[in-house]
Amino acid sequence: MRLKIFTLISATLALLVAPSIGVPSNTLVEVQKFDGKIKEGSYIVKLKDNVSKSSHLGWLGKQLGSDKITHSNWEKGLLHGFAGKFSEKTLSVLRSSPDVEYIAEDGIVTAFSVVTQTNAPWGIARLSQDARLANQNSNALNFTYRYESVAGAGADIYVVDTGVYTAHTEFGGRARWGATFGGYPSADGNGHGTHIAATAAGARFGVAKQASIIAVKVLSDAGSGTISDIISGLNFVASSAAASGRPTLVLLALGGGVSLALDNAVNALINSGIYVIVAAGGSATDVGNTSPARVPAAFTVGASSIADAVASFSNYGPGLDIFAPGVGIISAWITSPTATIAISGSSSSAAHVTGLLAYLISRNPGATQAQIGALLNSLALKNVLTGVPTGTKNYLARNDIPG
């Protein structure tokens, strides 16, 4: 008797879990967004492995009645499914089908091409050179910078600083105001935020020339602010990034004494999948004494000169991840839409690495933060800098198109 009962129950369970073509699901399949241009109304449908495509398409035809669909014929392809241009009705039917594993927007991609810029400042040029620059005039604007044309497209860089002069020609409409915290005017009256934003993603002076810039003002026009306002700014970034779903980087070219609260906020941001790049600081001391530069999971960046020497002011230590150009860096300024100025500091170094990370993200869609970080380290020039303190990595930032 027990055996009979067990058999009956087993048979009943088998009926319950058996796949059934054409039975709508109560849960709608989410449509995966493509981070870039799309072919409007076109989608890729991935069927579950145990589903017969011909049976599914037959069921779909019955559901649509007179509505006909045109779809690809991937009989022996790498993907078990099909693609096509679907009406809203068709898409709704597909989303309700238990046969469907996922649906994705049909994106448009283009061939990468190497761009050679011959009117570049020395900082970005150094990122694409293996050897020390032959021209040692940091004021010159005739250096060569080589990069892939994708150049950070699809990535959002949040500059949490003094604001950004979004109307500057360097940004070409790619910069926008995000939020202001601390009761300050919603404009960059200092210049620091504008300068580093253009170094990260400016059209001429920047690394990631296709990335978007979002200004988050947390510092006064005198260049100072409170930790609480900075944390408010980081909270804004977290919510905005979650809403956009785009690759997100935060440039934090600020710091002070040790703050557990700020460190915790930065760690939380990183754990949510956001890249945080931090200036090492300019006190010629160990980064372990400075927040948020001391956060291990952040990308902490020190400053180097055109002579491939560690800047005399740069912080250092085991917590520093990489060096990048930070002495005599020419970039955008706030006095006019075309104004420029040269400044020095690890802020500029962090901006170079922020742009480089955005660039690498766009070159490697789908890569994890750990993978991008490993790529940054593997590409870096090793042991080329002079004046590196003992216990500090001798890594100089470089892209993947060296000249």
Automatic annotation (TrEMBL):
**PROSITE patterns, per the entry:** SUBTILASE, SUBTILASE_ASP
InterPro entries, sorted: PCSK9_ProteinaseK-like, Peptidase_S8/S53_dom, Peptidase_S8/S53_dom_sf, Peptidase_S8_Asp-AS, Peptidase_S8_subtilisin-like, Peptidase_S8_subtilisin-rel, S8pro/Inhibitor_I9, S8pro/Inhibitor_I9_sf
Residue ranges of domain Peptidase S8/S53 in the record: 154-380
Q: What is an annotated GO biological process for this record, any one?
A: proteolysis
- Positions annotated as active site in the UniProt record: 161, 192, 347
Q: Which GO terms describe its cellular component?
A: extracellular space
Signal sequence range: 1-22
Per UniProt, what is one GO molecular function of this protein? serine-type endopeptidase activity
**Every Inhibitor I9 domain range:** 42-110
Say which family it is in.
Belongs to the peptidase S8 family.
Name of the protein in question: Serine protease
Origin species? Meripilus lineatus
